[in-house]
Every structure is written in C-alpha cells, then in structure tokens.
Fold this sequence. Notes:
- The complex is a heterodimer.
- Chain A is mostly helical.
- In chain A, 70% of the residues lie in helices and 8% in strands.
- Chain A folds into two domains: 5-115, no CATH class; 120-256, no CATH class.
- Chain A has helices at residues 5-24, 29-42, 83-98, 103-115, 120-137, 142-162, 169-190, 196-207, 210-221, 225-256; strands at residues 47-53, 56-62, 69-74.
- The radius of gyration of chain A is 22 Å and the shape is elongated.
- By secondary structure, chain B is mainly α.
- Chain B has one domain.
- Classes of the chains: A mainly alpha, B mainly alpha.
Amino acid sequence: MTFTKSEQSDLLDCLLRLGDLLLDAGAEISRAEDTLSRMGAAYGAMRTDVFVITSMISMTMEFPNCEAVTETRRIRSDGQPDFYRLEKLNHLSRSCCAAPLPLQELHEALDGIAAGKKPFSAKLIGSVLAAGAFAVFFGGTVPDALVSAVFAVAICLLQERLSRTDVKPVGENLIISLLIGLGVGIVTALVGSLHMDMILIGDIMLLIPGLAMTNAVRNMLVGNTISGVVRLAESLMWAAALAGGIMVALTIVNYLH
Amino acid sequence: MSILIQLLTAFLGSLGFALLFGVRKRHLLPAALGGMLSWGVYLAMDLWLGMNFLSCLAASVFAVGYAELMARVRKIPALLLTVPAIIPLVPGATLYYAMSEAVHGDLAQARAFGSQTLVSALAIAGGISFAIVFRELQTKR
C-alpha cells in the first residue's frame, strides 16, 4: 500500500483516534502502544515510533521515500472504563493488522465504535448487583443488600448527572460518597435492624478506584513508569476523596445520633 | 454455609462488576467464575496458612493467571477478565472500618485496619507482578 502525503497524515489521524478511543475505554498503556505500532507496520510504515502516556499520544511514522510524519494528541479520559468498546477496538485492530482496511472504511469503523457506548442499563444492573452482593459478601443481611442496591442506583444516577458538569473525578467521589454516607446514615438511623457498615461497604466497592490502581501497578511493572506513577497518584487522590466524603458523612451521622 | 454464601456473592459481585464495566454477554460467565474461583483460592489458602498476605497473594496470582489464560482462549483483552476476577480481593471492608474507627476516635484500631488494607493492596499488586513476569517469560521475540 502506498500513500500520498495527505493520505499519510489522514492515516496518522485515524490511528491517533484509535489510540484515543483505546485509552478512553480503559486500555493499558502497553496495549495502546503495541496496537498503534502494529497498525503502523500493517499500513506499510518502515518505522513507527509511538509514545503513550495517560494524557497524551505522540506518534511518528516513516514511509519509504517520504519525510516522516508526526502528530501528537492530548487525551482526556473520564476514568470510566468501557470494556464494550475495548473489545470492539481490539477486534478491529486485530483484523486490520491481518488485512489493512482502506482508509475510508477505517474511518467509518472508528465512527461506528465511537458512537456505540456500553448500555446504561448494563451499568445500572451491574451496580445494583455488585453493591447488593458485596453487602452480603462482607457479612450483611438480605435487607442490607437491598438498601445497598437502592443506593447503588443513586450512585449511578449521580455519576451520570455529574458527568455532564465540569466536576473532575476527585470532586465526583467526594460529592457522591458524602451524599451516600449521609443517606445510608439516615436510613439506618430510622430502621434499627439495618447495618450501616455493611450497606456502606457494598456501595464503597463501587467507588473504590480498583481498576485504576490495578492498571497503575501493571503499567509500572511492564516499564511504563511515568503513566503508572501518574495513575497511582490519581487513584490515591480518588480514594482519599472517597474517604474524605465518607468520613464527613459518618461524623455528621454520629453527631445526629 | 458461610463459605457457600461467600462464594455465591463473590460470583454475583464479579458478575455485577463485569456488567458495570461493559463486558459483553458471552464473556460474563467466565468473568464471574473468575471472581468466585479466586475467592475460593483465598479461602482455601486462608484455611491452610491463616495468613492474609499470602492468601491474598496466591488468590491474586490465580486471578491474573486465569484471566490471561481465558482471554487468550477467547481472543479478548485480558483486562476484561482480570478486573472481575480481582474484585472480591479488593479490601473494601477494612478500608471502611479504618475510616469509621478514625471518625470514632479509636486511632489504634484505625491504624490496624488501615495497615490491613495496605497489606491486601500490596498482595494484589505482588500477585499481578508474578503473573506478568510469567507472561513475559512465555512471550518470545
């Protein structure tokens, strides 16, 4: 496959978009770098240099008898992984590396993936199930699980509402954990047989940045130290915000008792 | 009985997380099974050794190994299965009790729960590193 100069930059644009979508879906740094390098090679570049950190992708491709083309892209991910998209992107890049799609089709395929998010209903059902199950897992009763599940719905709706504002993940965790802590505190004060700790633990499991931390450790272990450190610092801040919100809520609830 | 309930809720909890992150229907069962099995490994190790760190480490090695293997069979990114498999090991309860004891003014208890949380987190990280090194040994250049 040979490309004109403008097609080369078009291709680079496509690949950066692929990288952007990958990171936004929650892919590890090494996966993004690996995918982009392979795609570059599949489209006939002699040499592809990719550097990815959590907030930026820089990519240079060299084609035979041409000057190298370079572009960078700033990445803003909301920290909400979307494995539905990740799987589709993975499938697309696998098939593309085996048999490169024409540029126009690659554009369309990426448009299609960008348009389809994971369904909100799956997120809702998943949160309800996870919060309820973990309330019992850590020693709660069935009524505790039900209350925890109801508050999981509240968490989902709050996250959805806050994602339309300029609130960053730290603020989001702080606000949500404070409100959930207060809500659970009030409900358990009214109904004596419920266990506040079990209910809150079920809901906290939804808010703990477990994936971000796992990814941070992974990144560092495979040599992407910068991204690993950044992610770890970020997720520790999110966890601190979560703790801050819960602790303020507990203090207020304590005072009311 | 309590063990059965824990395994069942670990299954449901991991299933919930898999759904929540957008894992597709056809991969939900292996994702949820991963969580249940890794909790099973934790319980078995805990019964045998009675040490939280080692049990958590073993369970985390198992979780990542299971996810890598199943992901390869199903040709999907391992991350899709790693996260649900590790979720039951995440120390949500001890983190909560650390916060709650700190608010109630019992700092010694808060510190004890806090370090337990840290130990579990380190064990999970350690388990991931073992599994990753193993994968790197397998991959030929």
